[in-house]
Prior knowledge:
By secondary structure, this protein is an alpha/beta fold. Helix content is 57%, strand content 6%. The strands form two sheets. A six-stranded parallel β-sheet has the order 7-6-5-8-9-10, sandwiched between helices. The protein is elongated, with a radius of gyration of 32 Å.
Amino acid sequence: MPTSPDINQLFEKGIELHSEGNLPQALQHYEQVLRLDPRHFDALHNTGIAAFQSGNFEAAASFIRSALAIDGEQVGAHNNLGNALRELQLMEEALRSYERAIALNGGDALTHFNRAVTLQSLLRVEEALDGYDQALELDPGDDQAWNNRAQLLWQTGQSELAQINVEQALAINSHNVDAHNNLGNILRDLGQPEGAEDSFRQALTLAPDDAQAHYNLGRLLLSAGREAEALACLERALSLHPQFPPALRQHALALRQLDRFDDAAHSDATALALETQLVASYRRRADELEKLGHHESAAALYGAALELAPDDAALQQSRRDALEAARKHDKIMTGLRQALDLKTSRLAQRGAAAAAEPTEQERRYEAARIAFEKLTKLAPTNPRAFTNLGNILDRLGLRDMAMENYERALAIEPNMPLTNWNRGLLLLARGDYERGWPAYEWRWKTPELPLYKKRRHFLKRQWSGREALQGKTILLHAEQGLGDSLQFCRYASLVKRRGARVILEVPRTLVQLMATLEGVDQIVAAGDPLPAFDFHIPLMSLPLAFNTRLDTVPPAGHLRSDSGKRAHWSDVLGPKTRPRIGLVWSGRAAHSNDHNRTLPLASLAAAISGRYEFVCLQKEIRPEDQPLLATLPVRQVGALLNDFSDTAALCDLMDLVISVDTSVAHLAGALGKRLWVLLPTPFEWRWLEHGADSPWYPSATLYRQQQIGAWEPVIAAVAADLAEELGE
């Protein structure tokens, strides 16, 4: 009978070989130990671990189960069993193993991490995020937990949150290749292709043979029209991973754009064959799991198959059956459907809501607030977490709390562009122009802003307001929207008084209108050749140059309509028999804030009646508005509007202009017309945070939403004031 020392020596030699990576020899020693002592827990457990490392997951699960039959209180063994079961796609059993380990020792970060990975595989989004939160509370330095959390957030459409998480992962471990790949994907979806390209190239610097990084970079380059570069990346990805259907599809697209149609057809055919094989494999394994009663695991695999074959009706039914059989909570089922589509549902952002009930948009902002607050606790040194929390709080109207978070972010990273920009907008909204205008210049240093890429680079320097202009020529150039040009062109006369020759460059649709502007010597349409000049300045940097304060805002009324056009439009409208009211309820659909500022025509209809002559001042009518508009007493003349000089003449014939926050509102204000502006919550900084009047447009009255997305109280106030002001 062997003695304990003999067994111990064999086992210790096995551990030594195991640690050296010599798995076959280690397994032989463990086997000898088990022949001598079949109930040797550590030998059974370690055999399972070695089998797992060898890729034999069934054997791993079997040996670890045998070990746990001897001692079921070992946390590590339950954790390792969960890992083996997860590799076998037995996700529900894996979860039970992790939960048993957590019940034995809730303080093990690795077990929480593994449980979260399993939940993520099952697409149980909220539970997985909670699992990563628990892991990170125990081990904030786990870069892979941050990275996985980022990937999950990105896959469910929460790109801003995802960016903070993946940047936290890289702050901990800058060599995490997966994190660089994830950051690239996130930045691409956030509209930052340059940053995305940098991230993918950084991943390739660290891992030149990473097929995923080559694919990601190729896909990005292809979307940028760089077909030849993209093709090289995709071919490299396929040389490393030939059975990579998405890369084959992108490869075919690149070839097609390079007019290599036969090669493209071959790549598509190869991709289709591989997709067919993968779908069959997913289906086969899912069917097996379904028969074994692992319904949720089966549903996830059916979903993976549907990503490759979304129109397969049989797969769709199988997934529905598996979900039904799982009998999970509604929240889990909803999470599955959302994650399988790789996007979050876009809930309605407008519509009727009782004042006491939060709107859908408020609910989404509140959910984001909770998520970012949690993130600031998990990553208290990450400035982007505080910046994003501040942004959400600002949208919720909690501006003091927003400022506190911006200040906390800047205490960590004083020169963070996005934080300085957001803080500047809040200062301007508060009327703190002394600090707000300098901060507004951060727009040129903030890559996250679309405006950042549009900065003009001239050989001549930008005027700061300090340089003498006597005898010099200066170019004032538009930089943002039409409304911005209409609002800030008023500074031209102040520049002229400094003794300069003033050139004004604006969008072509504003050229004829701007001919009425005092202080301009030459107007140039954007895109046309520019004359020589000594200095330049963007229009929205002029308030800083002139040190503008609330009590020194240049007066409105700086634009005028053409008398000939007024006469023309008077003929078009005919004799006035009732008060004329110009209406604008929607702006340009492509505007980044359109979902907030546009008013549903159905809501505005409550204020429209035949007691007034309503005239639509907007050129474009959205297709969804046209049927209702046809039933309302509103005159439509948009097809006759050629440019803003026409709109200005039409505005001047109105007794009142009622508009949402669009360029027409700025035009009416610049003309000095009586103007009612319907403002959403959140509002733009230029309207200030309180009050019904505006220092920029003294003829304007502001009607503010008191609740995000709730227009009905605003329209009710407008209707009441119409009756009173116009003598109904």
